[in-house]
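Q: Start with the shorter request: fold the first protein.
A: Done. Sequence, then structure:
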Amino acid sequence: MRVKRDKKPVPDAKLQSLRVANLTVFDSAEFQFSPQLNVIVGENATGKSHLLKVAYSVLAASAEEGRKPGSSAPTKALLQTMLAKKLVAVMRPESLGRLARRSQGRERCELKCSFSDARLNIDFNFSTMSKTEVVVERTPAAWVEDSAVFLPTRELMTIYPGFIPLYDSYYVEFEETWLDTCLLLGSPLVRGPREKRAAELLAPLEAAMGGKVVLDQGRFYLTIPGQGHMEMPLVAEGIRKLAMLARLIATGSLLDKGYLFWDEPEANLNPALIKHIAGAILHVCQNGVQVFIATHSLFLIRELDILLRSDVNKGGISRFFGLHRGADGVTVQQGDTVDDIGSITSLNEELSQSDRYLEAEG
């Protein structure tokens, strides 16, 4: 039977599941996502960033094509080219086939993405021999409409001036998520009815930063009452990470729809700022954005757990994933609470240190 292709993008669809086979460190795993908050926890080298980047690549490639004026409906040939290009640009392997896990008798990587709107579902694969070729097995009937945002472990506010023309004009060894996010940071501010909603979400972030983020002559500043503009390189790095989130809310990229992928939000932040980040993450996902974070910070996980247990935030909006290394690759334990993900060594070490510190004092 011939499947009708819908040229019109699909708004506000959520990623329901991601199934991977033979991808980098994973032999086989399936992730069932929450439409709001998803927390991926694991030690180093367990594939946390790989998961974020693969899911982001699929969403971003679809949204980029769907936003083009006069874009045609999805076709297998177009998707194969787009996905291969985006995966290589985001994950930076020497060739696409380097992303396929190498084990005897298994040379093909398979990925299946399912959405709340089945028109977006897509299955594809590639082999260890692939240079730039993806094979699409299931072609979606429509494009993703909403923006996918990827925040890396470092802030991008200080590199923003001149970064986009540099990336466009020269070959530089920066993953394409940096370019994608810089383009969104430079988008115009929302106006009209959404502006008021943005102001409500921005209020706690601006209180934590002590000012507002402004873009002036191609450079970002923090405007502090009574002090004027402060150049972003002079602002503390933790505040700059908050500033990225604030700017993306102000432009509408993370206001009431879309997807946020954030790799180690806690990196280079003190505990006080991590508390603000945790609160901001929950506010964003409760207002329509599907959030995926990768972390091994016990403090951040506990802060999210505390907020999720509060009366205001109850409602089963979260999903936790524990990644565990084994002889046959990384496996996943998942559930609605952090108690469902099994024992994570890096988290246990933080708890053990607290016990040893108390013993030393005694």
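Q: Next, the second protein, separately.
A: Sequence, then structure:
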Amino acid sequence: MKDAISRQAAIAWSRERELSPQRLWPAIRERGGVEALLSCDEEELVRLLGSASRARAARRAPEDPGPRRWAQEIERAGIGLLTPFDPEFPSLLVEIADPPLLLFVLGNRERLRSPAVAVVGSRNATRYGRDVASALGKGLSSVGVSVVSGLARGVDTAAHEAALDGPGGTIAVLGCGLDVDYPRENARLKREIERSGVLLSEFAPGEEPRPQNFPIRNRIIAGLSSGVVVVEASRRSGSLITARLAADFGRDVFAVPGSVFSETSAGAHELLRDGAILCRGVDDVFAELFPALQSAPASWASPAAAPPDLTAEARRLFEVLASESPASAEDLVRATDFPAAVVLAGLMELEAAGLAAESDGRYELSRR
């Protein structure tokens, strides 16, 4: 009941111009929750929200049937709604100072449970920048890490496309409504992400892209992610806003070096000068965020034959299963210290290779 009231309030408040997340969250946290905030007397509510008109809007909106009908119409159209009070809402995003009151979502929401890393950069990326973004997107997704970006031209597009087919997949955060194709040339990519990844937006269906939307969008990209990799960025790039927000949220910020003669790398070089982590490839990201991915042995302990082209993660799972079989996915997470998404991706690889089989939720090596 408590979460239902909080969810209803969040949906209603998201429709009120005066009640921004930046204004509401300090008050919600000071009072210890939505219900406690709504139970305040008028004087206290004015103090917390800064004006009598905001206080009236905060108290009135959850009782208004209009937002409920509006939400039901959107859901009937096939677009999902997530508030911070829903279990599927990304846990990292709840931790930032001003999480969105409402997210619109299309696609596979399970992706929101995976570890995630943002790959962002210039819309006017060079071939080098696109190649680096592609390598990062593919490398991260291949081990079950979701790749977050903004569906923009250039670096974002390259990262999304490379991540699509991997176990981690990709999450696109839009600066417009989910039913608006922007940029138009990415309409096909957007459909592909909807089928296998996730599309997210803080902006209601029908909302056109506006310049002021993108810094708002960038805080969601940073908030969803354990770290942000800036591939190419000029000194005035919006990617630098994402990097600054990530640092404010306590996330790791990585920057890819480029040519000293390239303006598209000038912003990335300034990040490196100011303390960003050098990113020469996906292994540098793993070393900081997912060190278990670098600690897997080069061979397995069992004498059973296995294809030489298994990933290091699958080989590590093979080794554990050789000595501790059968084992559940949770057992393997504890034994390897791999994220759950990495374990599941490795198990899928072993099953596809005919090396492991699952029965009643427990895995063991196949007898061959």
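Q: Describe the second briefly.
A: The first helix runs from residue 2 to 13. The domain at 293-365 is CATH 1.10.10.10 (Arc Repressor Mutant, subunit A).
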